[in-house]
Design brief:
alpha+beta, 3-stranded antiparallel beta sheet, 7 helices, globular
Length: about 325
């Protein structure tokens, strides 16, 4: 079964190389000493009297409170939830949140400046699996004397489908130019691109609790670079003889992806050598808690302009080796 509805769609045959198929399922199959709890919510981490060690992981499961303990505790909840877990775990020794003597937990939140565009062309694009190419010519330098700054990465997205185009907001602007073209033909004459530039770390960009509710503050940091990257894509397509009209997509919460689209989130527990300005040391262990590690994208001090997943995986494997030496 080789269907074209793949990227962005669930696969009924588990044919996608996602985390569940490649990591979680094989782990549960091959390692009897691993238990996966579902429907469980980690409410907080409790420390000993010194505040230097996590003694208990307090979990709400099926309406009951349960406690788990281990010599070493690893938080990998994702950049937002790991920071919120530490903030919920405040105690007398850590009044502003666990491991938050620097007041950096939850701060320096980053989420990439991203936009998804559909290039509508006079050429026909029959490619089925087109997410195969990326263009990094402008990653370090725009090439423009009036804007001597990095832009980011242009990469391809999965092929547009007629039903998707029909249901999305850009349709009106497309049909204004192509009133008689059916959706299937628009799809055949389209090519999709994901544009991504760096979001810069700012202490004011943060996740936190206020009046018992989660708040996420975000000020866009790099909009000019994203606009220029779109212009570069149009320029490149024209220069290779494939001029196109770029239409913003609402795919993946797209257009210019809003605050609610928290893909590629990072930076809320950044690592560093100075406990006054960072949450974790270079081993991703909390400066203030001897047996607590954070191994998701929270540790990032900056995010670049590429998908962070491989870096997260590589760092988690690095930290796993460090923890192995402690055991």
């Amino acid at each position: 079964m080789r269907c074209s509805y793949f990227d962005g769609f669930p696969c009924l045959l588990n044919g996608k190389a996602d985390a569940q198929v490649m990591c979680v399922d094989p782990m549960l199959r091959d390692y009897p000493n691993v238990t996966l709890l579902t429907g469980a919510y980690v409410e907080r981490l409790e420390t000993d009297a010194s505040g230097r060690r996590v003694e208990s992981v307090v979990v709400e499961s099926n309406g009951r409170e349960e406690r788990y303990s281990a010599n070493i505790v690893v938080a990998a909840c994702g950049s937002l939830s790991s920071a919120l877990l530490l903030l919920r775990s405040a105690n007398d020794r850590h009044p502003n949140g666990l491991a938050n003597g620097s007041d950096q937990v939850g701060r320096n939140y980053m989420r990439h400046e991203m936009s998804i565009v559909m290039a509508v062309m006079r050429h026909v694009n029959e490619t089925v699996f087109q997410k195969t190419l990326a263009l990094s010519d402008f990653y370090f330098d725009s090439g423009d004397p009036d804007y001597p700054h990095p832009l980011g990465l242009i990469q391809m997205c999965a092929t547009s489908h007629a039903d998707q185009i029909k249901g999305e907001a850009p349709l009106a602007s497309v049909m204004q130019h192509l009133p008689d073209m059916p959706f299937e033909e628009i799809a055949r004459h389209s090519m999709d691109f994901w544009l991504q530039t760096e979001d810069l770390p700012l202490p004011e960009n943060r996740v936190y609790y206020q009046d018992g509710k989660v708040h996420l503050d975000l000020t866009e940091t790099n909009e000019k670079s994203l606009d220029r990257l779109k212009a570069k894509l149009e320029q490149v397509l024209s220069e290779i003889g494939w001029p196109a009209m770029l239409i913003e997509r609402s795919l993946y919460l797209g257009k210019d992806i809003p605050l609610s689209g928290t893909a590629h989130q990072a930076g809320t527990c950044r690592f560093g050598t100075d406990p006054a300005t960072s949450v974790l040391n270079l081993d991703c262990r909390a400066h203030e808690v001897d047996n607590l590690y954070v191994t998701d994208a929270s540790f990032f001090p900056s995010i670049g302009a590429v998908n962070p997943t491989l870096t997260i995986i590589a760092n988690a494997l690095r930290v796993a080796s460090i923890i192995e030496e402690r055991l």
